[in-house]
Amino acid sequence: MTGIADGGGAVTATPAAGTPIQPPSTMGLGVSLQPADSAAKTTGTFPYAADLWAEGLLWAAVLRSPHPHARIVSIDTTQAVEMPGVRAVVTHADVPGDASHGRRVADRPVFAKDLVRHHGEPIAAVAADHPDTARLAAAAIAVEYEVLEPVTDPEQAFSAEPLHPDGNLVRHIPLSFGDPDVVGEVIAEGLYRIGRQDPAPIGAEAGLAVPRPDGGVEIYTASTDPHADRDLAAACFGLEPERVKVVVTGVPGAMGEREDPGMQLPLGLLALRTGHPVKLAATREESFLGHAHRHPTLLRYRHHADAQGKLVKVEAQILLDAGAYADSSGDTLAAAVSFACGPYVVPHAFIEGWAVRTNNPPSGHVRGEGAMQVCAAYEGQMDKLAAKLGIDPVEIRMRNVMATGDLLPTGQTVTCPAPVAELLQAVRDAPLPALPKDDPEEEWLLPGGLEGAGDPAAVRRGVGYALGMVHMLGAEGADEVSTATVKVTGPVATVICAAVETGQGFATLARQIVQDVLGIEEVHIAPIDTDQPPAGPASRGRHTWVSGGAVERAAKMVRTQLLQPLAHTFGMSTELLSIADGKITSYDGVLSTTVEEALEGKELWATAQCRPHPTEPLDETGQGDAFVGLAYCAVRAVVDVDIEIGAVRVVDMTVAQDVGRILNPRQLRARIEAGVAQGIGAALTENLRTSRGVVRHPDLTGYALPTALDVPDIRIVKLVEERDVVAPFGAKPVSAVPVVTSPAAVAAAVRAATGRPVNRLPIRPQAAVVNRT
């Protein structure tokens, strides 16, 4: 079945002939259930970490390095310690456990000891009675630096002196697939650069650490992976994991693992040192300096095709700037190399990828990591081939699109639904937006806004297309297990699962799953902490699949407990009983009762796990079944460009997406629209700029996020519901793939409008200027 979202956001489907029309359900899967926290968020009562308070509270501040690369000669905390109101000052010497941490590689110090490796690296932390006192005390810490020459060009990292004991190379993947001697009749080459995009969460990082009587500590923060954070903290504090508890507060938006552990660890150390609760609310500047960003990437491509535009071979070199520490750069590189050819059939591929350390700000997981950077490059290459061959850009893509059963360059067979041709055809056939009206009142529609454009005659319209793909869940052997418990007491069900609601809608989905399986309308989601079994990080759609699958299994176990007594009484199996809208009925209509009556005051509960099928690491030639599943998207962008001043206005974004199954129509549409908006930011405005490793303007005036005036109407013209049989509910993640695809589509549209190569993101005005003489 294919669902199509209309302008109002509803997803409609035509029932098969002869199917009786049922009244619409108000609960369960497939319904636009209102999020339970929407009222609290709109009225300002939602409990964010920055709002927390405790008796005897102290305030923390962190001293950060002003240099991207320096040797620490000495640290003198005397003046800070002697300031009135200061309760504690901690440095590297005060870390009782592991001095380094990291989500994938433990190479990042809690506090810099001998060397500073990036601008903003933590040096020391202070706890004081007042936040102003804490900041003044941090500024009073005297640090003597021997400033060193920073390595900021990732190409120089290969020959530079090691910046870290582990060396400058984080990972190298030389993917080899097919015959290296094959040559196409037509060759297109390109060099592409992708900038440093920041997650820019709606709320900066904050947290509260509270010491416990047993010598442990509780950390209240907007964690997206509380158990990983607990393990990092316990190792740092030299404590057993059971003596550290992480409690998840309200998350003010997240793009995956975006929080900064370098903030949480000083908090816990200060709380343990002082015996008082300690709170830290990072400024926006500290947030920009501390957490990870999208990897800046340099990509060199050579595409080979035959005279009909069929791809023959792709050669590419991909260089990721990991910044000062490894973090998840190895995972990002694996995605970039694996998807370097895009959702196209390529019989021969030779992709070499590197991730290297530099003295630039740290890079890490940001939605669509790796896949977004290569999408901009391979789609630029497809446009180049189309121009060389005189083929329509859509047609050359249609001749090469991937389908179920094809091979990735990693040798893995695409077993999930891959309706790429259908998606591309949908955006191609959608009506184009009307041209701007010749009316002074519509001048604000011109690039640059009201009075921002030059001569209206210099405005050119361009239409561009892009296809993108992402992988679901973790990859290369990651254990993606999640655990959930469902309890039913009277007319109320409770879900206990450590899957964090980061804005992706898991809390709403969990309610819908229980409603669907048990027919109970009132479903509560328990607060999350590390006393619960782990559920893993909130990224790559994993909670929809793994945690949602665990909730469904637990709910079905409770369903069996509920139905077994009834089935026994009526001499039938539980499979002959159904639950819908709070009613239990038998296949023959003999039994009809309500769920509440069947419960009869009983309390039922069950715990279940969900673990997808295993994957394997890529081998030394980049081969292996590394991914659980894939999702696809097609985007058509329409832009108006003032070719004299280089201003670009996105007029229209048309999207067709492979979603597997629609679980919540309104929520799904919102996720796609948000992904497109983030993609427009990456295409046109978002770039955390540095000068010799120093972050320039680390604030929301220097870092330009797209506003409501920058994001056009987003038309979702097709949602392909071809269920992935190995996924619970058959659903696929929906938010990452439009982020991946939209920047490439905008770049293609600017190329079409200007005739310029447009090989850098974000697109700079000078790249869209055309000499009209």
UniProtKB/TrEMBL annotation:
Residues 43-149 form the Aldehyde oxidase/xanthine dehydrogenase a/b hammerhead domain. Residues 1-30 are annotated as: Disordered. GO terms for molecular function: iron ion binding; oxidoreductase activity. InterPro entries: Ald_Oxase/Xan_DH_a/b, Ald_Oxase/Xan_DH_a/b_sf, Ald_Oxase/xanthine_DH-like, AldOxase/xan_DH_MoCoBD1, AldOxase/xan_DH_MoCoBD2, AldOxase/xan_DH_Mopterin-bd_sf. This is Oxidoreductase. Residues 1-10 have a biased composition (Gly residues). PANTHER family: XANTHINE DEHYDROGENASE, XANTHINE DEHYDROGENASE SUBUNIT D-RELATED. SUPFAM superfamilies: CO dehydrogenase molybdoprotein N-domain-like, Molybdenum cofactor-binding domain. Residues 11-20 have a biased composition (Low complexity). It comes from Streptomyces violaceusniger. The lineage of its organism: Bacteria, Bacillati, Actinomycetota, Actinomycetes, Kitasatosporales.
